[in-house]
Design brief:
The chain is mostly beta strands and 120 residues long. It has strands at residues 2-7, 10-13, 18-26, 28-39, 46-51, 57-59, 67-72, 77-82, 91-101, 106-110, 114-119. Strands 2, 4, 5, 6, 9, 10 and 11 form a seven-stranded mixed β-sheet that branches. A four-stranded antiparallel β-sheet has the order 1-3-8-7, with no helix packed on it. It starts with a strand and ends with a strand.
Length: 120
């Protein structure tokens, strides 16, 4: 089994910053891509950013220039640095990882989510 544990969410004023972290643990050979998704109340879950094991990144247009995704392969951890936060960034943020596991092959895993609330 693979577990993803997020941390770093919270309440911040508009224009502020937060840094999310997501650490993977369990029995696996390697982690392919890792990413962050978010789901605002009443809306569908959407991709925020993702990053390959080689460091190639992809961002939603709404966060380009404000958010930065990075990963530490040695720690099996992905980060999301969020700057210039806006009220519309308010959502539950979920970590996602595509993992080559020992037992069940390659699977996608999700964290439980961390709430980010941006006040105006």
């Amino acid at each position: 089994q693979v577990q993803l544990v997020e941390s770093g969410g919270g309440l911040v004023q508009g224009g502020g910053s937060l840094r999310l972290s997501c650490a993977a643990s369990g029995s696996f050979f390697s982690i392919n891509y890792m990413g962050w998704y978010r789901q605002a109340s009443g809306k569908q879950r959407e991709l925020v950013a993702d990053i390959t094991s080689g460091g190639s990144t992809n961002y939603a247009d709404s966060v380009k220039g404000r958010f930065t995704i990075s990963r530490d392969n040695a720690k099996n951890t992905v980060y999301l640095q969020m700057n210039s936060l806006k009220p519309e960034d308010t959502a539950v943020y979920y970590c996602n990882a595509n993992v080559d596991t020992v037992v069940v092959g390659t699977r996608d895993y999700w964290g439980r989510g961390t709430q980010v609330t941006v006040s105006s």
